[in-house]
Each structure stands twice: as C-alpha cells, then as structure tokens.
Amino acid sequence: MQYSNKALAWDKFYESIAEPEVIEDDTEENYSLREKMIRILKEMDSKATATIVWNIEDIQSLRPNWSTAKCSEWLSDNANGIVDRSVELGWEVIEALLWHSEIKEND
Questions:
Q1: CA pair distance 77, 92, nearest whole angstrom
Q2: Were 11 and a residue from 20, 35, 47, 77 both cysteine, which residue would form a disulfide, CB within 3.0 to 4.6 Å?
C-alpha cells in the first residue's frame, strides 16, 4: 500500500491532464521510475527543453479493453524502448524543423 499512496501523489502532479487514479498493485519498480522522472523534470524545469510524457491513459486510448494495472505494467516494461525510439524520431523532427525555419529566414 505504501507505493499506491506515492502513485497517487504522482498522479496529482498531472491532475491538470487527467483525474488521479490509485493503482492498487503499484510496484517498487514503478515508484522508482516515477521518482527518477520527477528528478529529471525538476532538473529540466530551469532549462529550455521539450518534454514528452506518456501515461497510462495514452496506452488505454489504444487498448481500451486493458485494465489500468495492465497498462501500467506495459508502460513500465516498455519505457526504455519508448524513450530510445522517441529520441531517434525526435532528432529527425528537430532536423526537419531547423531546415524549415532556415528556409523561412532566407525568404
């Protein structure tokens, strides 16, 4: 139950996006991931950054028949792959946007 209370605190952090949910089977691994994300977000808060956050609701929008717990587990299990692929695609997007803005500046 200790981690469920901490999960609720994390969800309150994002309450402007969605109503908080208590995940009864939250794990220590999920809590550790949240703590790492909070630390990273705090560090980035003072810098000019672009941040992508995927959450349980994103997974449920693609798999509406999955439970919250299953979505949470899937997101936790696949977090590294999501980050790696997002970074790869992010570089492509940055390059394209830079190219586009340079063309506009030269017009």
A1: 25
A2: 20
